[in-house]
Amino acid sequence: SEPLIEVKNLKKYFPIRGGVLQRTIGYVKAVDGVSFTINKGETLSLVGESGCGKSTVGRTIIRLYDKTDGDVLFKGIPIHSLKKSELRKLRPKMQMVFQDPFSSLNPRLRIGDAVGEALLDHGLVSKNELRDRVIEALEMCGLASYHIDRYPHEFSGGQRQRIGIARALILDPEFIVLDEPVSSLDVSIQAQIINLLMDLQQQKGLTYLFISHDLSVVEHISTRVAVMYLGNIVEMASRDELFDHPLHPYTQALLSAVPIPDPDLKRERIILEGDIPSPANPPKGCKFHTRCPFAKDICKEQVPEFRDVGGGHYVACHLV
Ligand code: SF4
Ligand code: MG
């Protein structure tokens, strides 16, 4: 299938300021050269511990953040080269759903207005049609039409996330970045929201970037999975390949912490020593060497190449 999104050596550095003059004294290298494509209709998941840069990737590829370097193509269009007015035209096609939609909902705005706001802003609907479009979007997300006149505080966490999804969906997007969309919800509610997202993807042919630290959720929803560590992707493969044959020691460690339902199947738990180093001052060579149980001398000096080891399974490790 064809790529909808192409990311080429993308970098996003945030300046660190210090001293009385608040000069730039360094950079947090949140995203330090990542490349991947997302094909039309698939879900690519981005996993890793908090602070690894996955949310920054999500925001930069739909240009909520400007890039530091590299390229992002949406249907072949380099979105970071677009003028503001051109980007605005494209904006409805690239949407984002956040972990906590409540904090992005104005408490004094009725749900109908919150969901319809962007549609009206973009001039995509007349005032007369707005109510019908809002009801349609709410119903697609499993919320009855009578909710339209209620306020955010009247909804449960799961319902609020449905509202967040309706707000994105009403714009008829092609691509949605889902940033930890179920992480703040109870497990039973998580499954409902994941199923909703998968149904909507089927119906609308949506393409997702799914950002999560929860591998059991990722195993359920993904077509492919990319694992991030300190601003880089260290492994990327199809969902089944990654879960059945993880090659990178970091992926193996993450997976070893996921409980397996079948008691006959035992994975050896790999405990990682130490904390994640600061992305302002990452280790030389393989950035994972300070915590890797298999690190060799070469790992401290040379950056391992991110390469295809067969069938679209990419890994960056000297030992593979
Ligand atoms: Fe571990 Fe070396 Fe592989 Fe990095 S390159 S993951 S330090 S073995
Ligand atoms: Mg995050």
UniProtKB/TrEMBL annotation:
Pfam families: ABC_tran, oligo_HPY
Keyword set includes Nucleotide-binding: yes
PROSITE patterns recorded: ABC_TRANSPORTER_1, ABC_TRANSPORTER_2
UniProt domain ABC transporter: residue ranges: 5-255
GO biological process, one term: transmembrane transport
Key words, A-Z: ATP-binding, Nucleotide-binding, Transport
A GO MF label: ATP hydrolysis activity
Family, as annotated: Belongs to the ABC transporter superfamily.
PANTHER family hit by this protein: ABC TRANSPORTER, ATP-BINDING PROTEIN, TRANSPORT ATP-BINDING PROTEIN
Protein name listed in UniProt: ABC-type dipeptide/oligopeptide/nickel transport system, ATPase component
Gene that encodes it: OppF6
